[in-house]
Amino acid sequence: MSAASDGMLLERALRLAAVAHRQQVRKCSDVPYFAHCAAVALILAQFGFDDEELLAAAALHDVVEDTDVTLAQLAVQFPPTVIEAVAALSETKNDADGKLRPWEDRKAEHLRHIASASLSARAIALADKLHNMLSMRLDLAAGTLSLGAFRAPPERLLWYYRSMIDAAAGDDAQLAPLAQACYAVWEQLRAELRVLMD
Fold first, then answer.
1. Separation CA 94–CA 153 (nearest Å)
2. Are 166 and 129 in contact (CB under 8 A)?
3. How do residues 131-184 score in pLDDT, each as one tens digit?
4. DSSP-derived secondary structure for 122-166
5. CA triplet 140, 35, 120: central angle to 5 degrees?
6. Which of 59, 101, 152, 158 has the most CB atoms within 10 Å of its CB?
7. Cα angle at 117 between 31 and 168, to 5 degrees?
8. What are the structural domains, with CATH classification, of the chain?
9. Catalytic residue numbers, as ranges
């Protein structure tokens, strides 16, 4: 957090995310979903991203996609930079009829959005994928990972994670250390999933 910040923006974001996700748990575990929101913000801080608006967006990055909270509701409490990042990070899961869109369509669209998103949104996307992959590795080690919990087979999940790291990192030097951490964990996850699939 920057020295000039009083911390209230991030605190409001963390509180809203905790309440919005309170009935949700992470795939393959009973870990409250909010742990992911907090972890993404923490990863960013560990990699030197200390802007409070970026960290607030990180805490809120899944609320529009995965809860009933809307961008309009967020806009009442948070500045435009936070709303723009959350919008860029939110997949459109359902079609006009309310039916779940195909996984491949959603991911391809999301990759296009992230590739042209702001540096803040791309940094959050990298931290999000890093934490997701770390969580999958922990679940694998604990024997609780169920590949059936995901909407795509392991090879497509690996394709998506690698493609998202590429799209989010681009050639931005500021994102390079975080991207390299993602690539390293992706390689570890790929090796572990291959053992599981054999």
1. 20
2. no
3. 999 999 999 999 887 777 787 888 999 999 999 999 999 999 999 999 999 999
4. HHHHHHHHHHHHHHHHHHHHHT---GGGSSS-HHHHHHHHHHHHH
5. 105
6. 59
7. 60
8. 8-197 (1.10.3210.10)
9. 65-66
